[in-house]
Write a structure and sequence with these properties.
- By secondary structure, the protein is mainly alpha-helical.
- It has a two-stranded antiparallel ribbon.
- The longest helix has 38 residues.
- It is elongated and about 105 Å long.
- The chain starts with 29 loop residues before the first helix and ends in a 6-residue tail after the last helix.
Length: 157
């Protein structure tokens, strides 16, 4: 059994025109046009500032975690926590490398098993200052003041 299509036998002809009508390209919506356009200097500046702010947040997170870990260590030593406890061991091992440069800097007073780690407190202050310096230098290098901003400066006399 064969399948034969029963289409009409008429031929359709397309009238030939010497010059087909010109077709205009489809107008793009303004939002798409702006997305495809080259970014303006202001947009590039905003992108750079956002990227720099994101790196600042990452560095801040790292230093805050470090400062909190050292603070936990100082607190654990101050309340004479059991050094065999897994949490205490973890905190001591985590903060040990960061406190190594400060070991022996000053005496560590002890009373009935409680230890006041003055070098750890000094380390917290040093790492806080280091954080501040890193953030300031990063912003100075990668986001310098513009000449137009400097022209607006009026010193208080």
């Amino acid at each position: 059994m064969s399948v034969v299509s029963k289409l009409p036998e008429t031929k359709q002809t397309v009238p030939a025109t010497p010059h087909p009508e010109r077709v205009d390209p489809i107008e793009q919506p303004p939002a798409l046009r702006e997305a495809l356009a080259e970014p303006t200097p202001e947009q590039l500046e905003i992108r750079r500032r956002r990227r720099l702010a994101k790196w600042s947040q990452i560095i801040t997170l790292i230093f805050v975690v470090l400062e909190l870990a050292i603070l936990f260590r100082v607190s654990l030593k101050l309340i004479a926590a059991n050094p065999a406890s897994p949490f205490a061991q973890f905190m001591y091992q985590l903060t040990g490398p960061f406190l190594a440069p400060f070991v022996g800097l000053t005496a560590t007073p002890t009373v009935d098993g409680s230890i006041l780690e003055i070098p750890a407190i000094i380390a917290m202050a040093a790492y806080g200052a280091l954080y501040f310096l890193i953030i300031r230098v990063m912003w100075l290098i990668f986001y310098p003041a513009k000449a137009r901003d400097a022209a607006k400066y009026e010193p208080d006399l």
